[in-house]
Structures are given as structure tokens and as C-alpha cells.
Design brief:
Elements: H1 5-17, H2 57-60, H3 64-76, H4 78-99, E1 104-116, E2 127-142, H5 147-213, H6 219-254, H7 267-271, H8 290-311, E3 316-327, E4 339-343, E5 346-348, H9 356-422, H10 428-462
Antiparallel strand pairs: 1-2, 2-3, 3-4, 3-5
Helix pairs in contact: 3-5, 4-5, 5-6, 5-8, 5-10, 6-10, 8-9, 9-10
């Protein structure tokens, strides 16, 4: 019984000692982007503060309502759930591949019964013979050239790539929920503005109608006032529908109904709860983004696959052995003298495959080169996303200040136009024009404030924050 064990142990020791593979030495490509970002102004060169990748989303978004909604999304969003299940699936595949490095043990038991007719038996009578056996076997491929190890490394890198994909999905989800929440607040403000404007225009139409009936206003004045009123009415209906769509979008992201108490009603309070980020940081931080790390692990997997393709040119050695007992009767199966064993080493040497092995190696090298280009593209895309966000950030403060001043000027213009109209110095058309300018300025201010808040969220996302 000890005869086949010794060569198995010797082979095990040799295989464990041979931990090398034939994969090429892995080196990351140089960053195909400038060392830093160029922004329209120097105001964004501040490096103080915590980088986005090290800033948990709970610290970045201070509003407790938004935090609760993000928690709801992380628990219920179906895209994130699928990403997490993909991680578990690829992890199981890695465990399957990793198991090939170790011997496989199996146990079997069986019976073989045979009836011999009397015409062929020595006694001239039919005979029935039975044989019982119980065996334990082992099979193992010795990975002398690292084929199995390369495949295991490839499976590991695919698992890590999938994990980074899950983190990237989580970052996108956190940012999408924050932007949807802010958009909901902005559209609520626009809806309230349209309602107030419509109510004001209704009163104006009633006053002008009374003046028209008294002969103090013309039919043109009444028609112009009604035109402004109906425009505000149409805006009210449009923003009502838009607000409902915003609620539906937020519900889809969270995967569950969002309580009304958690919804943003004003944009001003929401923006104040979003932190600022330092932007004067080197472009090397992009290598820590989950989508870039995903591309890196995919590249490493392709590099490991080259090792497996190279190892296919070399012999494959496998060992198969078994030990057990056999008997003609079930009661004597484990008695002394019934032991048996088998040992069948096998070596497979590739000789002629019509160029298939070389073609497979060429394919593996080309796939590695493709993943190099994909990795560089991921870096370049990430660089552009940050550059675009910084370009918006560089001027958004000036835009916001200009919009505030525009609203003040429009308010003053409307006040003066109203006073001159009541004094009979200006026509009603001039007053309506001032009202339209005031209404448009307030709408543009809300839109700019939303753009400023969205820019903070976008910058946080593109710099790799939001997964912790």
C-alpha cells in the first residue's frame, strides 16, 4: 500500500518548488497624459484639504436627507446588486481555477456481476459471478511550466477587475443620486417660481381688464398681459411634469420609494452641505480611480494569459493513482489480502497541432496589446473628465456672481418700469418686457446654482471619491 505514495510525495515537493510561470514581466505603461491639469484660471491650484479618493461620501455630503437617500440606494439599487453578484461569480471562478493546483481525491465503490451460460462454463451449469471493490484515487497535473498558475493568476486578476467595476458602479451611483436629488430641488424652485409668476400675472390681467372696461387701457395691453400670463401657466405645467419625472428618476436610483421628507425643496440649502475639493493635484491620482484599476487588472490578466499560452508548448505531466480493495463477496471486501493499487503517470508532449499553439500565443499577445491601449484610453478619458470639471469650476463662481447681480438689476428694472407705467410715462409693453427679463434672470440663477452644485458632485466622482 505504501508503494505509490512515495513517488506522489516526491512529485508534490517538486511541483511546489516550481512556482514560476512563463508570463512576461509586467510593467504598467507610462501615463499618456500631462503631469497636471491646465485650467482657465489659477484659482483652482489649491492643494490643501483631503483628496477625493480619501474622502468618504458621508463626509462630503453633509445633508442628512441626502445621506439617508444614498444609504437607501446602496441597499436597493439593482445595478449595484448585479455588480456585487458579478464579483461573487468571478470569485467562484477563481476558486475553481485555483483548485487545479492541488491533487483531486475521489472515492468509489461498486459491484460487477456476470452470468455465464451453461454452454460455456466448465461445469455445464449456468454460473453467476460477482466482484466488489472500494477504491480511493488521486489525480494531479504537475504544473512544472506554470500553465495552471498562469491561468490562476488570470482568474485572480479578473476577479480583482470585477471588484473594481463594482466600486466604480458604486461611485457612479452615489454621484447619480446626489445629482438627481439636487435636480429635484432645482426643479422644485423653478416650479414655485413659475407658480408665483403665474399668480402675479393673473392679478395683472385682472387689473388691466378692469382698466380696459373703464376705457383706461387698450385691447393691446390686455392681450400682452394675457400672453405673459399664459406663458407662466405653461411653465407651471411643464415644471410640474418635470418635478414628477425627477421623483421617478430618484426612485429608480434608490430602488425604493423616497419619503417626501427626504426630498430637496430648495437648492440653496442643499448646495451649502456639499464640501469643496482641492484641485491642484497631480494627474497620477487617476491611477487610483476604480475604472482605471479595472483596466489595469484586465491588462494584468491578459499578461498572465500569455504565460499559459507559452506553457502549452511544453509537456504536460499528470499523475493518476488509486488504492483500495476487491473481493468476490461483500463480507470479505476489507479482509487481509484484498488490497489493490494502481499508479499511472502520463506525459503529453505537443508535436504537431497545425500551428494552433503558435496562433493561440499570438492571440494572447495581441489581446495584451489591446488591453494596453484600453488602459491608456481609460487614463485619457479620466484625465479629460477631470479637466472638463476643472474648466467648469474655474468660471462657475464668476457665472454665479454675475447671475446674482443680473437678478438684482432685473428686480430694480422691473420696480422702476412699474413706477413709470403707473405714472403714465411708459407703455405696458415696457413693463411686460421688464417682467420677462426678471423672470428669465431668476430662472437662469437657479440653473447656474444647480450647475455649480453638480460640478462639485462631478469633480468628486471623477477624482475617484464616493466608494468608501
Amino acid at each position: 500500500m505504501t508503494t505509490p505514495i512515495r513517488p506522489l510525495c516526491a512529485a508534490l515537493a517538486c511541483s511546489l518548488a516550481a512556482g514560476c510561470t512563463l508570463a512576461p514581466d509586467f510593467k504598467l505603461p507610462a501615463l499618456p497624459v500631462p503631469a497636471s491639469w491646465t485650467t482657465p484660471t489659477a484659482e483652482t491650484a489649491d492643494t490643501a484639504g483631503t483628496p477625493a479618493a480619501a474622502l468618504p461620501w458621508r463626509d462630503y455630503f453633509a445633508d442628512p436627507r441626502l445621506r439617508e437617500i444614498i444609504d437607501l440606494a446602496l441597499a436597493n439599487n439593482r445595478d449595484l446588486r448585479v455588480a456585487a453578484l458579478n464579483v461573487e461569480r468571478v470569485q467562484a471562478m477563481y476558486r475553481v481555477q485555483r483548485a487545479d493546483l492541488l491533487p483531486a481525491f475521489d472515492a468509489a465503490g461498486g459491484q460487477n456481476a456476470q452470468r455465464v451460460p451453461g454452454s460455456t462454463s466448465l461445469t455445464g451449469e449456468p454460473q453467476i459471478t460477482r466482484q466488489y471493490n472500494a477504491t480511493a484515487g488521486v489525480s494531479w497535473e504537475l504544473d512544472f511550466f506554470g500553465r495552471i498558475r498562469s491561468l490562476g493568476e488570470q482568474a485572480l486578476e479578473n476577479f480583482l477587475s470585477t471588484e473594481e467595476a463594482r466600486r466604480s458602479t458604486q461611485i457612479g451611483l452615489v454621484a447619480a443620486v446626489a445629482e438627481a436629488w439636487l435636480t429635484l430641488g432645482a426643479d422644485h424652485e423653478l416650479l414655485e417660481l413659475a407658480r408665483r409668476t403665474y399668480a402675479t400675472q393673473q392679478k395683472s390681467v385682472e387689473l388691466i381688464r378692469m382698466s380696459f372696461n373703464a376705457g383706461a387701457a387698450s385691447a393691446l395691453d390686455l392681450a400682452q398681459a394675457r400672453t405673459a400670463m399664459e406663458r407662466a401657466r405653461a411653465d407651471t405645467a411643464r415644471y410640474t411634469a418635470q418635478f414628477a419625472r425627477d421623483q421617478n428618476a430618484l426612485t429608480l436610483l434608490t430602488g425604493a420609494p423616497v419619503p417626501e421628507k427626504l426630498q430637496a425643496t430648495t437648492l440653496a440649502d442643499a448646495v451649502a452641505t456639499i464640501a469643496e475639493l482641492p484641485a491642484g493635484i497631480p494627474s497620477e491620482v487617476l491611477t487610483g480611480r476604480p475604472d482605471v484599476l479595472q483596466a489595469e487588472h484586465t491588462l494584468r490578466a491578459a499578461n498572465a494569459n500569455i504565460g499559459a499560452a507559452r506553457a502549452a508548448f511544453f509537456p504536460r505531466i499528470s499523475l493518476t493513482g488509486g488504492a483500495g480493495s476487491a473481493s468476490l463477496t461483500l463480507g470479505d471486501l476489507f479482509d487481509a489480502g484484498t488490497g489493490l493499487w494502481t499508479f499511472a503517470p502520463q506525459i503529453t508532449v505537443p508535436i504537431f497541432h497545425a500551428g494552433a499553439l503558435k496562433a493561440n500565443l499570438d492571440r494572447a499577445v495581441i489581446e495584451r496589446d489591446i488591453q494596453v491601449a484600453q488602459y491608456e484610453k481609460a487614463i485619457q478619458s479620466a484625465f479629460r473628465e477631470v479637466a472638463d470639471a476643472l474648466a467648469d469650476r474655474a468660471t462657475i463662481a464668476e457665472q454665479l456672481d454675475a447671475r446674482r447681480e443680473l437678478v438684482k438689476a432685473a428686480d430694480e428694472s422691473y420696480r422702476l418700469s412699474d413706477a413709470r407705467y403707473r405714472s403714465g410715462l411708459d407703455s405696458h409693453l415696457i413693463l411686460l418686457d421688464a417682467q420677462r427679463s426678471q423672470y428669465a434672470a431668476e430662472q437662469e440663477l437657479i440653473a447656474t446654482r444647480l450647475a455649480e452644485a453638480s460640478n462639485r458632485v462631478t469633480l468628486y466622482k471623477v477624482l475617484g471619491g464616493g466608494w468608501q
